[in-house]
Task: inverse folding
């Protein structure tokens, strides 16, 4: 399957018209028609935006291979959803991942308390604690990367000044609490957990702000 056929297949699967694609890529409708009929090929600077629009990789568009029916089926399902519905699904998935991460962070703190109570070896306690925190962090980072889109990046640029101020205030508060608690209890090996909580609070603030918008 050549590039023109692929563009046609993915355009139809997404429910776009030639005019829609032309407007999104800042080209004429005739240009899209020529691409689909193999009279011309997309310019280099249009390849990546085109792939992002269809949610495919450049290899899927440029390599001389057939588009899998599974991919087309998925695209068709996505094409039947409005942009708002697709964004809502992304937010729900991210919220679910964030909930799991919050639970794991909570579980890590409970583990530290429980291990002190049952006198677990400190090395084992730390190892398991770091393992749980590591899994939670990986989930948050991966979910954040997957959830990104161009629109979110543009909105993030507008939100940055406000979120940055909130983060600065939170950082100052957590620093004061961290130093105060650490000096009073002298439990420096445990109080650093506050910075894990701080990171979690920052993410929650971002999500809440986006939901409010």
Result:
């Amino acid at each position: 399957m050549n590039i023109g056929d692929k563009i046609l297949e993915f355009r139809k699967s997404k429910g776009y018209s030639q005019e829609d694609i032309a407007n999104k890529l800042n080209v004429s409708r005739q240009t899209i028609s020529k691409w689909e009929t193999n009279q011309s090929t997309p310019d280099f600077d249009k390849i990546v935006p085109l792939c992002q629009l269809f949610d495919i990789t450049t290899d899927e568009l440029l390599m001389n291979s057939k588009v899998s029916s599974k991919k087309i089926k998925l695209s068709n399902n996505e094409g039947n959803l409005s942009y708002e519905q697709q964004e809502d699904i992304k937010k729900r998935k991210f919220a679910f991942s964030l909930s799991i991460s919050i639970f794991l962070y909570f579980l890590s703190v409970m583990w530290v308390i429980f291990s002190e109570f049952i006198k677990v070896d400190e090395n084992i306690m730390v190892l398991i604690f770091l393992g749980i925190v590591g899994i939670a962090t990986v989930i948050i980072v991966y979910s954040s990367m997957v959830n990104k889109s161009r629109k979110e990046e543009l909105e993030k640029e507008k939100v940055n000044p406000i979120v940055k101020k909130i983060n600065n205030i939170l950082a100052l508060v957590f620093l004061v609490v961290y130093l105060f608690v650490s000096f009073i209890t002298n439990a420096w090996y445990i109080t650093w957990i506050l910075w894990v909580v701080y990171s979690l609070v920052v993410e929650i603030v971002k999500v809440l702000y986006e939901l409010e918008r």
Observations:
- DSSP finds eleven helices and no strands in the chain.
- The domain at 3-79 is CATH 1.10.260.40 (434 Repressor (Amino-terminal Domain)).
- Residues 11 and 80 are 12 Å apart (CA to CA).
